[in-house]
């Protein structure tokens, strides 16, 4: 496959060319890797004048490399070694993988209904798997016991368990659709139909992976930044030697510290989730202060200069592993969001302020600020009743959510153009790989070259998976004599989703970022199925959420390549995780909704439970699906939201042209328009106390440490991310079941200055949301 030049690759990956560090190590010396010890040793002493005799620690003999782009990451941070004889699909794999898959699926469903929008980290499962795997390897390994314990717990077995468990821990959006039917339409889908429909929606997305591997897994530029902490920790655990012992000691110290720390901001001292000096001074007196500076409670405010000390929130900014360009573009977008959201509300865009709507919410409201009852405008078949609509009136979005939808559509349009302009050569080369069945490709990547020793999953397997999944999806679209979406429409939107999987895949693989293309899917569905919110909802499922599963699967397959897990083993692990995860997602959704229904339907939610994600999805399904022609056509109230798609398409073009004209001026390639526009509407919901500390940590990691402390960066940066994520995930799981009401009644910590009564003040002592 043809590859980009190094400068173009640095521009695409989001790492600016960095000057060499002030020492001499950065550009001199040769090194060899001690494969047995797993440490780097140098053949000469760096930075020491000739003739001097000094005592140098073994790890200080490593050459210092300033990590600038994907090439340095995959060679300096990720070890390419492989042992083809290591067993993978062992009984130990199935036992630990299934247990952790169940564990992760339950936790993911809990997180989905939380105001923080947290997700399950693969690092959490990796840590538990390692502990359990090392325990099981102590069992006897002779005679019949060899089937239970085939030998030392190895990195491939470990990585396959993580892939199995993390696949199950990705929330199945089809279950969210089932939840919307239950919460907003009073439809309770048959459990069997709901579960197999969920399997089908995810597997349609997986089937697309087969044709994207040569573009989005094998090449070096397809870095998938989110996998770097995982593979860094895996290799530290399994590749021995003095250096890795020190790295694991570092890991466990950080893990333990964050484990105990998280109890404080999560439960005892919630003010620490969003410390705002302005809010503390104001003490809940002014709505403007809450709207701009508040960030401690669900849908409270934008969090301007709010500093959180809760890693479960901060990690959502991905500060330790997102490339610098991705983070800088996100920071620029959020600075714009403060201006856009505040300006939109106080200038009364869409009558959000004059109608008495909340400052922030993803729900629908009436003209007097009460919650919009969508059942009053729908007929018995859940289509639009025009007469009832005229009598009841149209729904309203909050001003901030209007801006959020607009900027997300700008991002969606910009993403299409950005990928075509910056990656058209890679896309063409990827198609050439498809014609060869992803075999014997000319790709100069050290990890791909190692993986050529293993058989790939044949293309016909992906094809069969697509056909079977499509048949199930079409069949489950008809239940109880009711049609949610025609069968032909499922096929149509699946193909549309495939196109966008390519677009989002390149963005995610190169920058670590992906944007929502749900807006364009819903606009298309609004014209194909006018007046039908359920059809619009299902169009989103197969046109957006299914290809989103493609990205998750590709990311895990990239982890498999880094860990040298045979492709067929990765495929088996992912399918197993899908079936386990979808089933448990459904079971837990029933429990959570039954126990917390009122909180989930509340437009603002509570500190512990919130339905903001399903509220947003349902709101768009109603407005686009039932009321698309009444609300989004030219001259209608929200015409500017779909119009943003067309504007977004042209936004990256001037930057690309300037980059072509002035290739040495890196600013034109450094600004990523899809990311900037996406984050320009990012703060209009949920909680927002994490972004300022995230920016500081991101700058310290991806600029200062990478440039001025390259040795520390290579050894510890991604390990630090793994330790922080792992420790918070473990304690957060315990807290949710023991204290936050996931299994029984919640236990509220006594109210005090650092834990104010939510009916009086927000967690940061700003005025309570309302």
From TrEMBL:
Transmembrane annotation, as ranges: 93-112, 118-136, 161-185, 191-209, 221-238, 250-281, 302-322, 328-346, 460-479, 485-507, 519-545, 565-588, 638-659, 679-705, 730-753
Keyword match Transmembrane helix: yes
InterPro entries annotated for this entry?
Answer: Oligpept_transpt, OPT
Provide the topology term for how it sits in the membrane. Multi-pass membrane protein
Any one Gene Ontology biological process term?
protein transport
Its Gene Ontology cellular component terms are: membrane
* Subcellular location(s) per record: Membrane
One Pfam family matching this protein: OPT
Q: Keyword set for this entry?
A: Membrane, Peptide transport, Protein transport, Transmembrane, Transmembrane helix, Transport
Q: What broad class describes the main subcellular location of this protein?
A: membrane
Q: Name one GO molecular function term.
A: oligopeptide transmembrane transporter activity
Q: Which family does it belong to?
A: Belongs to the oligopeptide OPT transporter family.
Q: What name does UniProt use for this protein?
A: OPT family small oligopeptide transporter
């Amino acid at each position: 496959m043809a590859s980009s030049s190094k400068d173009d690759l640095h521009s695409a990956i989001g790492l600016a060319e960095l000057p060499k560090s002030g020492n001499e190590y950065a550009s001199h010396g040769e090194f060899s890797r001690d494969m047995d010890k797993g440490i780097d040793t140098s053949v000469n002493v760096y930075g020491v004048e000739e003739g001097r005799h000094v005592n140098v620690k073994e790890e200080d003999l490593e050459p210092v490399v300033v990590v600038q782009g994907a090439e340095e990451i995959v060679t300096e941070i990720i070890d390419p070694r492989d042992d083809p004889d290591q067993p993978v699909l062992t009984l130990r794999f199935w036992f630990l993988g299934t247990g952790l898959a169940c564990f992760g699926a339950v936790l993911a469903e809990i997180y989905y209904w939380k105001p923080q929008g947290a997700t399950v980290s693969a690092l959490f499962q990796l840590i538990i798997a390692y502990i359990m795997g090392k325990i099981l390897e102590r069992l006897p390994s002779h005679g019949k016991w060899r089937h239970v314990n085939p030998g030392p717990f190895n990195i491939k077995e470990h990585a396959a368990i993580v892939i199995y468990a993390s696949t199950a821990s990705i929330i199945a959006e089809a279950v969210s659709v089932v939840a919307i039917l239950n919460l907003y339409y009073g439809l309770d889908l048959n459990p069997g139909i709901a579960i197999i429909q969920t399997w089908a929606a995810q597997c349609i997305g997986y089937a697309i992976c087969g044709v994207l591997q040569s573009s989005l897994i094998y090449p070096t530029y397809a870095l998938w930044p989110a996998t770097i902490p995982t593979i860094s920790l895996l290799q530290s655990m399994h590749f021995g030697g003095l250096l890795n012992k020190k790295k694991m000691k570092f890991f466990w110290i950080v893990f333990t510290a964050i484990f105990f720390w998280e109890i404080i901001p999560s439960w005892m001292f919630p003010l620490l989730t969003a410390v705002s000096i302005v809010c503390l001074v104001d003490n809940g007196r002014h709505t403007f202060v809450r709207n701009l500076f508040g960030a401690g409670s669900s849908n409270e405010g934008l969090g301007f200069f709010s500093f959180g000390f809760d890693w479960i929130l901060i990690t959502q900014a991905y500060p330790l592993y997102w490339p610098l360009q991705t983070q800088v573009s996100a920071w620029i977008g959020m600075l714009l969001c403060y201006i856009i959201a505040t300006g939109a509300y106080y200038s009364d865009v869409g009558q959000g302020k004059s109608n008495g709507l909340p400052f922030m919410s993803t729900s629908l409201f009436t003209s007097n600020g009460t919650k919009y009852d969508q059942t009053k405008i729908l007929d018995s078949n859940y289509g639009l009743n025009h007469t009832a609509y005229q009598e009841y009136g149209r729904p309203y979005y909050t001003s901030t959510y209007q801006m959020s939808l607009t900027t997300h559509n700008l991002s969606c349009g910009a993403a299409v153009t950005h990928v075509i302009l910056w990656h058209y050569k890679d896309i063409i080369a990827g198609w050439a790989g498809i014609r060869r069945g992803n075999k014997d490709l000319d790709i100069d990547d050290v990890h791909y070259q190692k993986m050529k020793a293993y058989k790939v999953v044949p293309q016909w397997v992906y094809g069969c998976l697509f056909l079977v999944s499509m048949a199930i999806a079409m069949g489950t679209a008809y239940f109880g004599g009711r049609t949610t979406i025609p069968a032909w429409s499922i096929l149509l939107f699946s193909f549309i989703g495939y196109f966008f999987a390519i677009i989002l895949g390149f963005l995610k693989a190169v920058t670590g970022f992906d944007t929502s293309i749900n807006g364009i899917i819903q606009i298309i569905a609004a014209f194909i199925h006018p007046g039908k919110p359920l059809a619009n909802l299902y169009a989103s499922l197969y046109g957006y959420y299914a290809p989103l599963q493609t990205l998750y699967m590709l990311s895990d397959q990239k982890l498999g390549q880094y860990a040298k897990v045979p492709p067929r083993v990765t495929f088996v692990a992912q399918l197993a995780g899908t079936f386990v995860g979808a089933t448990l997602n459904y079971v837990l959704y029933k429990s959570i909704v039954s126990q917390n229904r009122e909180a989930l339907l509340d437009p603002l939610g509570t500190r512990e439970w919130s339905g903001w994600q399903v509220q947003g999805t349902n709101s768009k399904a109603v407005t686009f699906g039932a009321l698309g022609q009444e609300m989004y056509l030219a001259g209608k109230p929200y015409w500017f939201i779909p119009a943003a798609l067309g504007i977004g398409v042209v936004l990256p073009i001037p930057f690309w042209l300037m980059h072509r004209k002035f290739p040495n001026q890196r600013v034109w390639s450094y600004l990523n328009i899809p990311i900037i526009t996406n984050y320009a509407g990012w703060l209009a919901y949920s909680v927002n106390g994490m972004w300022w500390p995230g920016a500081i940590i991101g700058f310290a990691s991806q600029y200062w440490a990478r440039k001025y402390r390259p040795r520390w960066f290579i050894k510890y940066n991604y390990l630090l991310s793994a330790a922080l994520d792992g420790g918070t995930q473990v304690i957060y799981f315990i807290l949710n079941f023991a204290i936050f009401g996931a299994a029984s009644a919640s236990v509220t910590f006594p109210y005090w200055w650092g834990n104010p009564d939510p009916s009086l003040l927000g967690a940061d002592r700003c005025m309570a949301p309302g």
